[in-house]
Design a protein that fits this description.
- The protein has 266 residues and is α+β, with helices and mostly antiparallel strands.
- It folds into 2 domains: 111 residues, Dimeric alpha+beta barrel (Alpha-Beta Plaits); 144 residues, Nuclear Transport Factor 2, Chain: A (Roll).
- 31% of the residues lie in helices and 36% in strands.
- The chain contains 6 helices and 13 strands.
- Strands 7-11-10-9-8 form a 5-stranded mixed β-sheet. It has a 4-stranded antiparallel β-sheet with strand order 2-5-1-6. It has a two-stranded antiparallel ribbon with strand order 3-4.
- The longest helix is centred in the middle third of the chain and has 31 residues.
Amino acid sequence: MRYICLGFIDENQWSSLPAAEGQQLMESCFEYDNELRRSGNFAGGIALDTAKHAVTLSMANGRVEVTDGPYAETKEVLGGILMLEARDMNHAISLMSRHPGVGIGPFEIRPADEQTIQQFEAFHAAKARDEVLSVVHQWGEAFCQRDLDQLESLYADDFRIFDAIPPFQEKDFSAYRARIEGCLPYFPDTFSWLERDVEVSVTGQLALVSRFFRWETADPSHPASQTWLRHTCGLRPESGGWRIFHDHVSVPFDPETVQALFTLTP
């Protein structure tokens, strides 16, 4: 179970400590945090800047008011947050009782609201999955519409592509664009795409999509629609949405004949 430990500090008292003593105390906190990591009890944490740089939001007469710093009457302010993995409250108390930070100021320990956290994570995962799939589908639509500017906008600046056709890799979109422009004349005037067995995994700032897809043409015998391709995308959130930083399109090959297998179906 996760427990949130809120460490409070009297900033005037802290600033009055000799520099060497303050540094030694901080290093002892770091060492104990590492001990918690090694034992699997450290689930996260962050130190906070001085409350002098904080603002307080409050509601007054139906409007949000912003004031500098914490409440004026506050003596001890929040100095850091630590997240523990512990069996129960007694275990959390035992772990934090040995933390050097208790010598700086009091710690408040609260159980994390696991139900709300799980609801948020499920909501975030579903929303992120929809957003990621939208990018992959925009990729297919942009190709079918021959909109290479739109296609380029879906990639991160530092993308890396392993395409089904040479070269071995591509990191320059202008070269990738030229290669696509060379392929498009072999497609009919209008075509679409078909996918199956789509799998999406989203963890924090990383999303992976794997699927099988092929181009679909009005004439089922058209060469462009004969091959199912394996497609894997790695995406990460950037300004404006998820962007593709890794793109891999391939078909299997027969190691005995060293020939690519274009007619396999998933």
